[in-house]
Amino acid sequence: MNMMPGIYLLVLAALQIPASKAEFFSSTSGLGQLLRTEVIVLKELQTYVNEIREHADLLQREINEIRAEHLTAAKSIESYLNNPVNAFRLIKRLHTDWETLEGTVESEHSRTNFLEAMAGHRQNLSFPTMEDFVGTTLAMTRLQQTYKLDVAELSSGMLNGVKYGSAMSWQDCFVLGQHLYSMNDFNNTVPWLEQSMRLLAQQSYSDEPVSLDFMEAVIGYHESLGDYQNALNLINHVLDVEPEQRLHLLEKRAHLEQLISDGVKRGLMHEVARRPEDYHATQDYLIYQQVCREELMPTAAAQRELRCRYFSGHGRSLNYLAYKLEELHRDPYIIQLHEVIGAHESVQLQHLARPVLQRSEVYSPTNGSTAATFRTSQGTVFEYDEHPIIEKLSQHMTLISGLDMGFAEPLQIANYGIGGHYEPHMDSFPESFDYSLQRFKTNRIATGIFYLSNVEAGGATAFPFLPLLVKPEQGSLLFWYNLHRSGDADYRTKHAGCPVLQGSKWIANVWIRLSHQDHVRPCQLQRDHEVSLQYKD
């Protein structure tokens, strides 16, 4: 929204709204509710504008801008909502900008109907929470860092050189930077504030006093961060426009010039460093990001050993046709089978899961199952006999792996949202894991991932130690063993879901336990686990 800076200041203090019943940032599945919410509240605002004329010009500009956004979305709502920039701007508008618009009518005598209607909508419609807003903020910076995206390009709607959606306004960039500041992510704050001021300077009202006042406020941000050069650039711009009225900035300019000349490095972004135990500062995590960016790949020699072939499976195939098997890695053995299920079946599985999706959780020995920032998705589980298509997945797994699906955990279907990811992890349980309360008293011998959608950009499955990247292909199955034949964990199979850059990622996870699988994968005379021990820690 292109609100004047004075009006927009109201937004900055209005960042908390009543809690929503759903969580929107962790899954693309629920974003359609927000678009419908905005359609309804937009109608309420239009009704109010029709009743009064005093603020009509300002409010109509806001309406037209959002409607233009909706026209873009109407061409392909799914594609629109799958774009992280569009999703951020949608959540940001409903989380902050609409409260500002409500504030502009509080002084109007005829505001009662509008405000009462909005109060009712907040009780009955879906609105994003602070957690959603923080989640989208983290997702934007996650995408920026993982894929090394330029902030200027990202804010313009460009993702890896491809134009996917509408550009962010200077206000969008400022609010994102301000939230990063409040979350103590100071290094990422700087480029978003810088881009905000760059975009503001391009506006027709950028030289008006109220805009210059806003720039002065942002100078304070940069100075506290220790970003002296951007603070100095803003001071010079303000003084160029109003040299006589802003004489108080001359002393600050001289001070900053001296700090830069002396090479002084202090301020929040220099003082706050990652803790030594922070996983995001480890070589392990940096390798994972490199694999997601395809900067690290298997060697040509290793790839020459791989084969593609037809595989009839362990028994008669369901459709009497051989599976199309592609070897992705020899040791550990990782394969992808193509066209296992059809597009119709993939979509039907999504429809089955959509009404019962909940925030995905991870297990911790100390806290049990909890939501975590390193896994942002929504999921649900089904027993294999709940639906014919789900039972068919079980039959495919039996034919492909030869393993006994009677000892498989319930099928988990998951949808990844804005920048949705799952940081590197093992599917097998650690040595200290307590199996006493488990349905199956053994470890996970194998994993199968059915990809239920294609993903336009990002969202691949990464194996950092191999290094291998598997891109989602609708209808295919990715399969590997988590354990050595000895039953020890194969630490080389540590894997991750790279952040979804553009699109919606749907998968169905199959985890098979070790019980009664010795007829398919018997132990050898000697333990075979030492080859992976170097990756344990």
From TrEMBL:
Keywords (alphabetical) are: Coiled coil, Dioxygenase, Endoplasmic reticulum, Glycoprotein, Iron, Metal-binding, Oxidoreductase, Signal, Vitamin C
Q: List the GO cellular component terms.
A: endoplasmic reticulum lumen
One GO molecular-function annotation for this sequence?
A: iron ion binding
| Ranges in a coiled coil | 42-69
Top-level enzyme category: oxidoreductase
Query: Which compartments does it reside in?
Result: Endoplasmic reticulum lumen
In this protein, which residues make up the domain named Fe2OG dioxygenase?
407-514
Q: What is this protein called?
A: procollagen-proline 4-dioxygenase
Query: Required cofactors, per record?
Result: L-ascorbate
Q: What's the stated role of this polypeptide?
A: Catalyzes the post-translational formation of 4-hydroxyproline in -Xaa-Pro-Gly- sequences in collagens and other proteins.
Query: Which InterPro entries does this chain map to?
Result: Oxoglu/Fe-dep_dioxygenase_dom, P4H_N, P4HA-like, Pro_4_hyd_alph, Pro_4_hyd_alph_FE2OG_OXY, TPR-like_helical_dom_sf
Q: Does the keyword Metal-binding apply?
A: yes
Family listed = Belongs to the P4HA family.
| EC annotation from Swiss-Prot or TrEMBL | 1.14.11.2
Q: Which residues form the signal peptide?
A: 1-22
Look up keyword Oxidoreductase and say if it applies. yes
